[in-house]
Amino acid sequence: MIEILASRYAYALMFVLLGIGMYMMIANENLVKKLIGVNLFQTAIFLFFVSVAYVQDGKAPIVPDDPAPGELAMASPLPHVIVLTAIVVGIALTAVGLALIVRIHAEYGTLREDTLREVRADE
Amino acid sequence: MSSVELLPALLVAIPILLAAVPIVLGLRYDRTGWSVAAVTTVGLAAATIALASAVYADGQVVHVLGGWGEPQGIGIELVADEFSTLIAVLVTVTAAAVLAYTRIGGPRGNTFYAGYLLLVGGLLGLSMTGDVFNMFVFLEIVGLATYAMISSGDGPESAVAALKYLILGTVGASLYLIGVGFLFMATGALNMQVLGEAIPQIAEAGGGDLTLLHAAFAFIFVGFALKVAQWPLHTWQPDAYQHAPDGVTPVIAALVSTVSAYALGRVMFTVFGVDFLVATPYLTEIVVAVGSISVLAGSTLAVIQTDVKRMFAYSSVSQFGLVVAAYGLVTETALLGAIVHLIGHGLMKAGLFVAAGVIALGYGARTVDEYAGLADRRPIPAAATAVLLIALIGIPPSVGFIGKWYIAVGSVQAEMWPVAAVVFLSTMLTLAYAARLLEKMYFTPASALESPHGPGAVATDGGERTDGHNTADAGAESIAADGGILVGSSSRGSPDSVSFGMLALLVSTAVLAVVLGFAGGTFADLLGPFVTEVFN
């Protein structure tokens, strides 16, 4: 058990972060904080992909000039590319989400979900 | 590279590139969005039909992006096979047809049509992609465009519904991404073809990698259950469908969840493969259970709704439950039934939501009670709604019948008797809510409930706000471009606002739903190669 935690702590951390993000989305009444929860949730996944790509003593995956470099330990570049793409997607989502929150605030004058429910129930 | 091989890439790239055109032209001219969208979607429909004729004649067409040359599993591939082409045809034809409604019915504005084209591009990409990570990107493109389209409604409710969908949809896509991460850890590949070959070997070897595959499937299935709106993860869908503008709901109801359900089928059958699905303990049982419960919960909730659009939304939950349950049966006939039902449900729901929009526009009716006596006053929309509802119940001859028939036969073949019972029960429950509407339209006199709300003050969706305060910032994105003209889903019913195009669209959808009821054999012939390949 301790050995697993010592060698795989990155995965454990990822699920802790994932849980915190999920909890923020569910339990927080403030819409902006909900969106921060979504971001945390996504960031946990990015860190997971980065830790998947880690290679012990691995270098940055750049092919050296030497035509016969022999055996090289390199970090896998593919997950990094995936994370870059996913970050871009995440930014777009955050932007759309914030735009929606601005509109909700302009219409109802509140950012809190419980107040929003009351306002909508009164209408 | 022949010209047919270029088509899959062009189908994805052209709508996404042209999505910028309405905004750029909008700087000079006010109302170009509709024309650009109409020309593009009609062109895309022609291109997908050309692609379909090539695929059904000569087998699948593969386009390798980025100049990797022959398919080798390194670059991202776009694959048009018998399954994906059929979905692509549904996407482009529906997208082109629904424009007949939005021309008069709104929403208007160049930015709206930019989002529309982005949505079509994303859906086509999602249906063609042959790479599991690329599928995530397209899922999110579709999601982003959908959130923007839902929030283009006039009322403030639409923004709340869109935000709810945004949060849940992002979680769904993120769970899918975790699943992709586990798949990548187990196999080191992202290409569906390569994954499909690697997974049986890992499953045979067993050990830790097999556990990774199980975890990957669990995350991917839950992610898609959210996107497809399976009970109990369906809560975003009724709000989103009800509060989206009337011109948007047909597109998202017919296409967004359908293509997500297609993607689930693609991942289950092309990536994981039949052997993995059958060999993993409890996997098929769980998939079938989720689908069956969605069928029952969705249709029960539909029966108790008062708002017509909300009722149709819950009906979607139950119809997609049938598709997911059919996936879980893992027999050839059930898979064929799932695909036919995907197409048929998309067609019928597009028609029903267009009908709901037309009736709201021309008659001001939005709740089941307000539909009273509709058949006398608006015979054409009422008749089209009736035909589509009967098709949705699954009374032959209709496309709804052949889908359900194949699923029922598949469940008998798999000896999963509970599913056969669920299919039968779903028909009964669909009849329950469809009959409510039919009874109101044809057998309840209108006089008692004539215009229950004064003009411009219809209760749903805060319609009265449209000409009041706040419109400037209320729907800034959707309104600004056309100078504050607001027709959209404002609820004053006037027959003049119903155009000939809308009625033609409605009638042709209803006719198509019946005519395709005779096409069961054609579907089986078209999809035969795909289904055979999956099961051998």
From TrEMBL, chain A:
Residue stretches spanning the membrane: 6-26, 38-55, 81-102
Key words, A-Z: Membrane, Transmembrane, Transmembrane helix
Subcellular location: Membrane
Entry GO terms, CC: membrane
Membrane topology, from the record: Multi-pass membrane protein
Keyword Ribosomal protein part of the UniProt annotation: no
A Pfam family the protein falls into: Oxidored_q2
UniProt xrefs under InterPro entries: CPA3_antiporter_subunitC, NUOK/Mnh_C1-like
Primary location group: membrane
Name of the protein this chain belongs to: Cation:proton antiporter subunit C
TrEMBL record, chain B:
Predominant location category: membrane
Residues annotated as domain NADH:quinone oxidoreductase/Mrp antiporter transmembrane: 130-430
Topology in the lipid bilayer: Multi-pass membrane protein
Keyword Iron-sulfur tagged: no
GO molecular function, one term: NADH dehydrogenase (ubiquinone) activity
Keyword Transmembrane: yes
Transmembrane domains' residue ranges: 6-27, 34-57, 83-101, 113-129, 135-153, 165-190, 210-229, 250-274, 286-304, 311-330, 342-365, 386-407, 419-438, 500-524
GO cellular component: plasma membrane
Protein keywords: Cell membrane, Membrane, Transmembrane, Transmembrane helix
Gene Ontology biological process terms from the UniProt entry: ATP synthesis coupled electron transport
Compartments where located: Cell membrane
Top-rank taxon, per record: Archaea
Protein name: Monovalent cation/H+ antiporter subunit D family protein
Source organism per UniProt: Natrialba swarupiae
